Amino acid sequence: MKKLEELLGPTIWLLFVLIAFVGAWIGYPAALIYILVIKVVYSVIVSILIQSWKNSESVLVESGKDSWIINIHGIPVTETTNSLKNLHFKSERLMRVAYYKFLIPKFIITVGLLFLSFQSISTIVTVNELSLSSLVGYFTVAFMLYKTIHCISLINKVNSNTWMINEYIFGEHTFYSAYISKYKKYCSPYLVEVFK
């Protein structure tokens, strides 16, 4: 299942971006605003916050190298980037507070965009009964509803402590990291779910 996500992920993402641009063009800007605010601005702000924690040595950052081969005029060129995988905190309380700092602003933004998508569809669909533009509007509302529910689910996992916590011993310190069970025998780092 994970391999299928890796293969179809970029294609689905491109399709979503195209639908978001079409939606913004015909009067449903919520999905495009989500891409710009959450996927770009929010990600940069969270990365800056994580870097400041890393510099203060209150968190260990787990990263991995992703590489792929690109053909430029028939010459294979290997590109390598470092990607953020997970965070390891000095205490469970610090971990909980950090994820609240990540999730509360994201929740506020997604709820605002959900209301914007409802408002957009209510003004446009009353004029046009059922058309391609109304289908794009329904898609936008469904997407924003899904993202809001996902964010509520993540906050609920922090509140109820239903995530899985691993302890790592590095030197004299014990660090804690959070994971979510995804598939059989597969756990996803909590930070990955925050960025989804």
Secondary-structure blueprint:
Blueprint: H1 2-25, H2 30-55, E1 59-72, E2 75-89, H3 92-125, H4 132-160, E3 164-170, E4 173-183, E5 186-189, H5 190-195
Antiparallel strand pairs: 1-2, 3-4, 4-5
Helix pairs in contact: 1-2, 1-4, 2-3, 3-4
**How far apart, in Å, are the first and last alpha carbons?**
17 Å
Helix content: 55-70%
Radius of gyration from the CA trace?
20 Å
Count of strand segments: 5
* Poorly predicted runs: none
Compute the number of helices.
5
The main pleated sheet reads as: 3 strands, antiparallel
Keywords:
single chain; 196 residues; alpha+beta; three-stranded antiparallel beta sheet; two-stranded antiparallel ribbon; 5 strands; globular
Tell me about this structure.
With about 200 residues, this protein is α+β, with helices and mostly antiparallel strands. It contains five helices and five strands; from the N terminus they run ααββααβββα. It has helices at about 1-25, 30-55, 90-125, 130-160, 190-195; strands at about 60-70, 75-90, 165-170, 175-185, 185-190. Strands 3-4-5 form a three-stranded antiparallel beta sheet. A two-stranded antiparallel sheet has the order 1-2. The two termini are about 15 Å apart. About 20% of the residues are buried. The model has no long low-confidence stretch (mean pLDDT about 85).
TL;DR?
This protein has helices spanning 2-25, 30-55, 92-125, 132-160, 190-195; strands spanning 59-72, 75-89, 164-170, 173-183, 186-189. With 196 residues, it is of the alpha+beta class.
